[in-house]
Amino acid sequence: MFDNCPVPVCLVSKDGYWLDFNDKALELFEYTRSEFQQLKYENVTAGTDIWPDKQEAQKVIDGESSGYFMHKTYISKTNRPFWALLIVQGIYTKEGDFEYFISYILPVKGWFSNVRVAAKALRQGKKFLIGCAVFIGLLIYKLGIITWEEFLKLLRVFV
């Protein structure tokens, strides 16, 4: 369903097991398909990020929220920690009952290299990317990944 998606996408059950996922997820977490199917999202999440994720997930299950996003530290099979932005959407039946989560995992490292590419494109006149750069900058500032001063430095690259 999402094999051609350029980012890791996972369907996650109510109890935290991976129902389905694309090859990008396997590459990122460094597991084989059969290994990854046996895991819960908790198994690849740094300990300090498990509880906040569970709290937000429960709100989606209870219908208090349709989704959420947060930055998390994940741990790969080889114990390599990495930061990522997790975007989660609840999927519901026609009757409104929770069915499963769809999760997009955007590694933060890739974002910063993409910012450099965006800066080059801006210099070539693709001004529509200014909005994207501001959005990404504000998002990573709001997530606490960069300071306000770092955000302003980032903006100077584009202006």
Which labels suit this protein?
159 residues; alpha+beta; Beta-Lactamase; 2 domains; 5-stranded antiparallel sheet; 6 helices
Number of helices, counting only DSSP H or I runs of 4 residues or more: 6
What is the SS-derived class? alpha+beta
Going by CATH, the homologous superfamily of the largest domain would be PAS domain
Low-confidence stretches: none
What gyration radius follows from the Cα positions, in whole Å?
A: 17 Å
Mean pLDDT rating: 82
Per CATH, the class of the largest domain reads Alpha Beta
Q: What number of structural domains do the residues give?
A: 2
- At the fold tier of CATH, the topology name of the largest domain is Beta-Lactamase
What is the second-level CATH architecture of the largest domain?
A: 2-Layer Sandwich
Strand order of the largest sheet: 2-1-5-4-3
Shape descriptor reads globular
Strand content: 15-25%
Return the string of H and E elements.
Answer: EEHHHEEEHHH
Major beta sheet summary? 5 strands, antiparallel
Helix content: 40-55%
Span between termini: 39 Å
Strand elements, count: 5
Summarize the structure in words.
This protein has six helices and five strands. By secondary structure, the protein is an alpha+beta fold. The protein has helices at 23-29, 33-37, 47-61, 108-123, 129-142, 148-158; strands at 9-12, 18-21, 67-75, 81-92, 98-107. The longest helix is centred in the C-terminal third of the chain and has 16 residues, at 108-123. It folds into two domains: 9-108, Beta-Lactamase; 112-158, no CATH class. A hairpin with a 5-residue loop joins strand 1 (9-12) and strand 2.
